[in-house]
Every structure is written in structure tokens, then in C-alpha cells.
Amino acid sequence: MVGSGRSVHVVVRAAAVAARGHAVRLVTLGDVLPAEGVEVKTRPLPRSLPAALAAARSFFRDIASFRPDLLHVHYAGGPLGTLATLSRVRPLVATVMGGDVLPERHPGGMSGLERRASRRVLEEADLVLAKSDALRPAIARFGDFASKVETVRWGIDPARFHRQPEAARRLRERLGLLDSDRAILSPRTVNAVHNIHLLVEAMPRILEATPEAALLLTEQGADAAYKRQVEARIAALGLAGRVRFVGGLPHEDMPALYSLSEVMVGIPVADGLPQSLFEAMACGTPAVVGRLAAYEEAVSDGRTALLVELRAEAVGEAVSRLLTQPSLRATIAAAALARVSEIALLPREAERVEGFYRRCIAAPRRPRHPAALALDALSLLFRHRREA
Asked: What are the residue ranges in the chain where pLDDT is below 70?
């Protein structure tokens, strides 16, 4: 497998495949989170062209020495995706994550080089796994790949993600929350794509109905400039005591964080299908999410979540409904738990992926295009020089 070692999703999926009895090596660059049952090969992120060339050679060597039956890259784009296409290993499986095919996920849009990188991974892949059916039209904008696309939501491991009252109590104490604080959780990265400012702007309306409401913002991978803007908005609205940044909590704390929260909110401008939604559903935390096509294939408004327009007023009204109507919270939580068990259980999805692997391995090899691969290598060098 190839992907960011800092991505919880990558290491969890690698571990899920390994748990099926397969030998899995994760090849990446930079820091890596703990990956149970997975062999990890990584190198420091290169800061110069000679270091980048050395890292690429090590990357290819780490793949080839494992003698894999199949190569699976998570994120159909970016430098790691291009390196995966340049390796000699086939079949190649690519998991589309969202930002690799959705320009809206990038504040400045996708550059021509970024679009080319994603298109080339999709072209070279023998199989493309999409997190949601809603991503299929986005993939289609890069080419006619419909015949090799399968929807795999991956989902959650119910052994890890379930309601944990005692762990929630301990985490509440660690975070310094009062027993009376009624937590609203935003588990998404603090950046403009996730509309954190809209959630902050919804808080005065929420506090009118529920003065004990407390908004918790996680900070893993936060955009520093955008965070400063959010902090300024918090100060301007007089919310310093009711909005809290809780840092980048480790993944093992997330079930407790969902469990201590009464509402989870996710309102990005665009998305694939986030694990945070499934995690909240599995932990019995009702969700308020935007009316995005990917979300609407997983949850239904008023039954398994509340879907809202991307306006502070609409977000505030929906959160207030859940905080002030215990029966609605309980009904949605129960229906959401049943729904996530139906569509997004990681062990079951890993078994499906195993079947797709076997199908790819048994299929005839597709021809490679040396000229295009040479351009991939040149494009990668140019991107590195520009980013450096």
C-alpha cells in the first residue's frame, strides 16, 4: 500500500486488510501513525532535489523488495500517487479520497499539474475504489473510467467505535469541561473548506436556546491563517467561553470524544463521504451535515441525521433542535446506528476489497504507456521544484 502515513484512514485500511491474513507493507514518506499488523517503510520528506531523487529510489526499492501481488495507492493524485504509477508493480488499485478529484476541496482549486496527476493515476489504475457513488461524476470529469470504478465506503470497526460512557467521562475531565457543558463537536480539520466559521457564527443562536452549549473544535492539520480568522470571529461574537479548540487528539480518543458530545457537525463545501460521519453514527452521536450528494446517499434528513443548507442560521436551528429535543436525539441516534451497521462496517468492506484484489490479480495485464510515464516523472520533478 502507498499513502500518507499521517492519515488515520490509510493506516486503518491497511490494518483491516492485514487482519484478513495478508502480508501488507505500507510505503510512504514522512511520519507514520501506528499501523497494527502492517510493516512500514518510510523516509524523511525530501527538502531538496537530490534528496527527492534519493527518496524516490528508496520508495521504488521498498515496493519492489516486498514482491507484492498488487499495489494499492490511497489518494489518486499527489506525489505519492505519481510514484505509485511509476513503480513496476501491477495490478494497481487506487482509492479516491475526495480531494484528489474535487477541486472544491482546495481553497485555490486544483492546478493543471494536480489535475494531470490525478488523471494519470486513474488512467493507470486497474481498479478505482470510490468512497461514495457521489464521487463517480467527479471521477468522470477526468475520463471514462466507469467500467473500473467500485464503491467502497470502508466505514468503521464496531469493536473500536461504539458508545463509551466511562471513557467519555475521563476525557471530559482531561479537557476541563464542566458536567453542565453540552458539547457540540466539529471533528473536521480547521480550514476554509470545512466552514468552521459558519459553525462559530451559528453559536449565538444555539446559545439562546441552550446556554450550556459548548463547541469543541479539533485541530489536527489546522490551517494556521484560517484558525486566526476563526479566533477573531469567536472574539468578535463574545464566544471565548463557549468555543474551545481541543488540539489534535489521538485517534484512540475519538470514540470517547463522540460519546461525550451531544451533536456532531460537518458542513464542508464539498466532500466524498467522511469517516467522521460514520464514527459519530456508530457512537450514538446524532449528526448535522450539509446537503451534499455524498451525505444524502448515506443518511436521510430527519431520520438518520439532520441535513442543512450551508448557512449559519440553518446550522444553528438544526443543532438547537437536537439539543432541546431529547426524543429526537434518541430517535436519530438509534436509526443512525442501524444505518451505519448496514452500509459501513470496516470488516465487511475489507472482505469486499479482498474480492476485488483477487479479481484484479486474475485479470490480464493492461498495457503500460512508456511515453506517458516519462512525462509523469518530469511532472513530478517540476512539482517538487515548484513546491520547494
From this structure: 384-388
Peptide bond connecting 46 to the previous residue in cis, omega within 30 degrees of 0: no
Which set of grid coordinates corresponds to residue 289?
451535515
Please tell me the predicted confidence (pLDDT) of residue 299.
Answer: 98
Chain length of the chain:
388
Q: Which amino acid is at 191?
A: N
Cα 228 from chain centroid (whole Å): 23
pTM of the model: 0.93
Tens digit of each residue's pLDDT (9 = 90 or more) over 144-159: 999 999 999 999 999 9
pLDDT at 385: 67
pLDDT of residue 109: 83
**Is CATH 3.40.50.20 correct for 8-155+347-387?**
no
- Give domain limits for the chain: 8-155+347-387, 165-343
Burial class (CB in 10 A: 0-12, 13-18, 19+), 58: middle
User: How far lies 205's CA from each of 124, 218, 287, in Å?
Assistant: 50, 22, 18
Q: Which of 83, 64, 66, 65 lies closest to 74 in space, CA to CA?
A: 83
Task: Give the 3-state secondary structure of residue 165.
Answer: helix
What CATH class has 165-343? alpha beta
Spatial CA neighbour of 290 closest among 276, 79, 279, 282: 276
